[in-house]
Design a protein that fits this description.
45% of the residues lie in helices and 17% in strands. It is built from nine helices and nine strands.
Length: 258
């Protein structure tokens, strides 16, 4: 996944979008996050989610409880991890996780290692983000839908008595860009044939079209309140288009959004 195009800073960050809390003990994950923060020179971002891919969980022998339970797990894990990353000692006896007088030393290089929440659920996920997270990420939604969800997140921030401006926002787009209009038309035709009734949703969450159209689309998300856009690469991709994205789209956006 290509790094985010951020409006405020161009310093590269590293992380995963996202870690499902059911796959790893959150205390061990806090230790791993600290190590990665040191290795990266203070650039690690810990992004967490409630999970969605049940076949993967089943294949590897992990439990995959109903979504309400997984969201409870997510919130409890964030509280535990935040404690370990910021406190000398942490004790928590929760419904899902437990630590007793645990420490996480050395501390991360960042005074507050960012914890993000990924997901688009309006009732629980956005509320958890407003309550606990430093950032929120949405995956594969249109600019209009991103703007609507962002407004909903603002509402949750108000209920939690939090300044919405303190919560960063990004999104994921699939990479489907082309170098010219003819190739772009073929890519869109292939997507429609592959996805059928779901094609509009898939296209709206993909970075398609020519370099100029791709830059315009990313700009629409930034105008909708996104602080950055993550572009997901899934093989096979058009190597020439990727070169054009790096050499044309990224410089254009950086110049315009400076």
């Amino acid at each position: 996944m290509l790094g985010a195009l951020a409006a405020e800073t161009l310093r590269p960050r590293i992380g995963c979008l996202v870690f499902y809390v059911g796959y790893r003990n959150p205390a061990a994950l806090a230790k791993a996050a600290t190590t990665l923060d040191h290795i990266s020179g203070g650039r690690f971002v810990l992004r967490l989610g409630a999970g969605w891919h049940e076949p993967e969980a089943r294949a590897y022998g992990y439990d995959f409880p109903p979504i309400g339970t997984r969201l409870d797990m997510l919130e409890e894990a964030i509280v535990l991890i935040r404690g370990l990353l910021t406190q000398e000692r942490t004790t928590l006896s929760g419904r899902f996780f437990r630590v007793e007088d645990a420490s996480c030393l050395p501390r991360p290089l960042q005074p507050r290692l960012p914890i993000w929440v990924g997901g688009t659920g309006e009732k629980r996920t956005l509320r958890i983000a407003a309550r606990h997270a430093d950032g929120w990420n949405a995956a594969y939604v249109s600019a209009a839908e991103f703007a609507r969800l962002s407004r909903r997140l603002d509402e949750w921030c108000e209920r939690e008595k939090r300044d919405p401006r303190t919560l960063e926002r990004t999104l994921n787009l699939s990479f489907g860009m082309s170098t010219d209009a003819a190739r772009a038309a073929r890519v869109e035709s292939d997507l429609r044939a592959r996805w059928g009734p779901a094609a509009e949703r898939m296209i709206s969450g993909s970075l398609t079209g020519t370099p100029a159209q791709a830059a315009e689309k990313i700009g629409s998300y930034l105008d909708a309140g996104a602080h950055g856009v993550n572009v997901a690469l899934r093989a096979p991709w058009d190597a020439e288009a990727l070169d054009a994205y790096v050499s044309e789209v990224v410089p254009k956006l950086r110049k315009e959004r400076r």
